[in-house]
Amino acid sequence: MEAVVISDLHLESVHTLSHLITFFIKNLPEECDLILNGDIIDSSYPNLPRENLQILDLIGKESFRRNIVWIRGNHDDCSLLRDRGKIQFKRIHTVDNRLIITHGNELDKTKAKIQQLFRPFKVVQFILVKSGRKPVNVAQFASKFETFYRLYRRKLMLDAVKFAKEKGFGAIACGHTHHPEDRTVQGVRYINTGAWTEYPPHYLMVNNREIKLKSI
Questions:
Q1: pTM for this predicted structure
Q2: Nearest in space to 90 (alpha carbons), one of 40, 49, 26
Q3: 148-171 pLDDT per residue, tens
Q4: Using CB atoms within 10 A of its CB, is residue 132 exposed (0-12), middle (13-18) or buried (19+)?
Q5: Fold of 3-215
Q6: 182: number of Cβ within 10 Å
Q7: Is there a contact between 170 and 188 (Cβ–Cβ < 8 Å)?
Q8: Which of 5, 86, 146, 156 qualifies as a FRET site for 110, CA 20 to 30 Å off?
């Protein structure tokens, strides 16, 4: 089998690389499954731009010609889908016995504390959007606090590795942190597919020969 995993498109966000997403999906190999690993729709923004509604429509249409799995993330508001087609909605997806895929928010033990820290930031974001100004890119903002951001990513990675071990998998793919990486920790391969709100966007290619993280 062949599958591609992407995460954190954040449709609705002004930072979404809409043109690249459309091009990428339209040019997937015919027999390739598409795994959408969470935060596809960014429900923190009030309106979905027309070009991003077209992306959702494209995903729905593609579900009739290839397997599409949508793993729900913490931002996803699937009520905005006008046609769900044959999309499979899940919390976890596995590829054979080689790879387990989950967004990562449900493994994130620090999420409640992070939300408290970012509450003032969200208020500022809301005011910016309401006033017609461009909101700040959350991942780029967080990355300015380098030590904190690194520790946060490491904590999620260790939680993901523990989860993969408990489930009996040697590899796990997550999103959530917006930071692409491919590392082996405690004998488990941890892959994060990053986000399609920053250059370069990444995707995970899975086939019978290899599991490989690539960039556009």
A1: 0.85
A2: 40
A3: 788 889 999 999 999 999 999 999
A4: exposed
A5: Purple Acid Phosphatase; chain A, domain 2 (3.60.21)
A6: 16
A7: yes
A8: 5
